[in-house]
Amino acid sequence: MNIKKAFLAVVPLLFTACAAIEPQQFVGPNGKTAYSMRCSGMGRTLDACYRKAGEVCSSGYIIIDRASGTVGVPMNGGTMMAPQHNIAIECK
């Protein structure tokens, strides 16, 4: 793979890593307002989800679900593995 193709393959992943974490509101298992967040992309960890949860719930939060894994991202006829992290929280 030449440098130009490698660059074109990596650029979309960089934008994914910089994408904002968008909390999605839903009704949690206790009937309270809850939020789900996807913190995926190259260089992202669950820490990014935890930081965003702290912003959403300034008085603290309870994690009601958490999942981590990898997903295949199609790249130039191949597949590149990227991390995927999701959490669901309820504010205290």
List keywords for this structure.
92 residues, alpha+beta, Translation Initiation Factor IF3, four-stranded antiparallel β-sheet, 42% strand, elongated
Specify Rg, calculated over alpha carbons.
16 Å
Largest beta sheet, briefly? 4 strands, antiparallel
The number of helical runs is 2
Just name the CATH architecture. Answer: 2-Layer Sandwich
Shape: elongated
Find the count of extended strands (DSSP E, 2+ residues): 4
Adjacency order of strands in the biggest sheet: 1-2-4-3
Quaternary organization: single chain
- How many angstroms separate the termini? 51 Å
Overall average pLDDT: 81
Question: What does this molecule look like?
Answer:
It is a single chain. The protein has 92 residues and is an alpha+beta fold. The chain has a single domain, classed as 2-Layer Sandwich (Translation Initiation Factor IF3), CATH 3.30.110. 29% of the residues lie in helices and 42% in strands. The protein contains 2 helices and 4 strands; from the N terminus they run H-E-E-H-E-E. A hairpin with a 2-residue loop joins strand 3 and strand 4. The longest helix is centred in the first third of the chain and has 16 residues. The radius of gyration is 16 Å and the shape is elongated. The termini are far apart. About 7% of the residues have low confidence.
